[in-house]
Amino acid sequence: MVRRGLTGGIFRLLSRSEIEAIHSASLQILQHVGLSVKSQKIFNVFKSGGTEIDEKKNLVRIPEHLVKECLNKAPHNVLLGGRNEENDIMMENGRVHFGLGGSPNPYTLDVETGDFRVSTSEDVVRTTRLGDALPNISFVMSLGGAFDVPYETEWLHEASLMLRNTQKPIAYIAAGSEGAKYLLELAAAVRGGFEQLERRPPVLLFSEPLTPLVMPEINEAIIEFAKVKSPVAYVPGALPGASTPITLAGEHALCNAEILAGVVLTQLVRAGSPIVYGNNMSVIDMRTGNVCYGAPEWTMGKMMVGQLGEFYGLPTWGSGAGTDSKTPDAQAGAEAMMNICLSAAAGVNLVQNCGTVAHGASGSLEMGVICDEIINYVKRILTDVEVNDESLAVDLIRKVGPGGNFMAEKHTRTYLERGAILHPKLFNRQTIPDWKARGQKSAREEAKEKVRKILKEHQVPALPKEVTDHMDQILSRASQTMIKK
Residue 1's pLDDT is what? Predict the structure, then answer.
């Protein structure tokens, strides 16, 4: 059974003509400005694929016809496989799925002390288990980095811990071609071989260009994933006013060009390789220079992603649950609700950053639980309103009549069972006396108790020993080849 996700795509920020204008501007950028490619492997793929090459400057210019050809080859639907099929998710047609975590954040907001501290491998395990348990979380990224292992293989160690501690698919990074090969080996070990890996890939590669218009060597990971038809999310991390024009139109024209270059790269490597359209545009507070996740423009950028991905017929990715607040407070709740709700309403297929605080610098287990509850609300908001004879209930209204009461009616019970009214699992609706009698707990305190309960009680089935032994051997080989002596 594949998770189809809730139906989004009901909110439209751009008109069709505006989308076409962004597309046209991006094609001009690709054909006349071009990309600086820092990897010889990537450069060779573009060179053999029919792009215009400037060997001296390592510059690649991509003609419009090649962009169109590669868009036609890229799949419209992309499957991301869990350890078991009931945790598979399908990226298609505005269906929305939410993910715990983001990049390997340097800090963790400790659930017991309430203080920030450097993240460790144990934090990766704890946050992955939390993501596995939360019902509205469909995929997992790391909320904190494993900063207690050598940095050269830190990300690979984190990916291994996530694959061992969740039955849901994961999304993660890889360091270049060599790193991607090791990550794919880990994924194949979990799946049972490379043939099964291609059928139901459990890992989505998250990869970024160096905006503006630079493909760094680390993007060689894309080639390795495309070879085996494992999905790639190619996601510029733009800073309007710094790495792109400050306007949303100019930023998206430039970043859309970068994303289309990623589409071309994957399809030149192997036609039909799954590629996910994404944009992790952030906003700079020009007064301080700080990157902002809670800015309205940040959310507007994600909404544009939903429409542009739909225009190209590609699955989409967006950072839709982050907050600038340093703690799970009113600001965090407001910003997370704005980001989650509007990203979902725009139909972004994969929405990450659930559980991140401090503009992505830290993970918070409590915030992960709060985001799970927010998603519960958003799912209800985006549920289609049923209008038919049964729901209009004219006969029932006639029966009850003026001054009557509908509480005891079978119709009321039936629709309550169908979820006509959402009953929250975390947020409280108690009376003041009941709330005081139960300890006057804030939403953060309630979330903290739920975190403790999950970490104490939730068990993820262990992978077979032969699989974990194989994974350990892969990590050992990676350490021998990648750690600088």
Answer: 55
Q: Which helix (H) or strand (E) holds 59?
A: strand 59-61
Cα(210)–Cα(212) distance, rounded to whole angstroms?
A: 6
Contact 138, 98 (CB under 8 A): yes
Q: What is the DSSP string of 260-324?
A: HHHHHHHHHHSTT--EEEE----EE-TTT--EESS-HHHHHHHHHHHHHHHHHT--EEEE-S--S
176 φ/ψ sector (left φ>0, alpha ψ -120 to 50, else beta): left
The pLDDT, as a whole number, for residue 286 is 85
Q: What is the SS3 assignment for 411?
A: helix
| DSSP H or E stretch at residue 251 | helix 248-269
Q: Cα separation of 409 and 401, whole Å?
A: 13
Q: At what angle do helices 330-345 and 365-381 cross, to 10 degrees?
A: 40
Q: What is the residue type of 386?
A: E
Q: Tell me if residue 79 falls in helix, strand or coil.
A: strand
Does the pTM exceed 0.85?
yes
DSSP 142: B
> 376: left (phi > 0), else alpha (psi -120 to 50), else beta?
alpha
What pLDDT shows up at residue 9? 57
Q: Please give the Cα distance from 123 to 368 (Å, whole number).
A: 13
Report the chain (485 residues): mean pLDDT per 10 consecutive residues. Answer: 57 90 98 97 96 94 98 96 94 90 86 95 96 96 92 93 97 93 97 93 96 97 97 93 94 97 98 96 85 87 92 92 92 94 92 92 95 94 90 96 95 93 92 94 96 97 97 95 76
CA distances from 339 to 13, 18, 393, 413 (A): 14, 23, 36, 34
In this structure, how many other beta carbons lie within 10 angstroms of the beta carbon of residue 35? Answer: 26
- The fold of the 6-14+72-381 domain, in CATH, is TIM Barrel (3.20.20)
Quote the crossing angle between the two packed helices 465-482 and 154-165, to the nearest 10°: 170
Tokens 């400037």 identify what position? 54
With beta carbons less than 8 A apart as the criterion, state whether 466 and 172 touch. Answer: no
Which sign does the torsion angle of CA 90, 91, 94, 99 carry?
A: positive
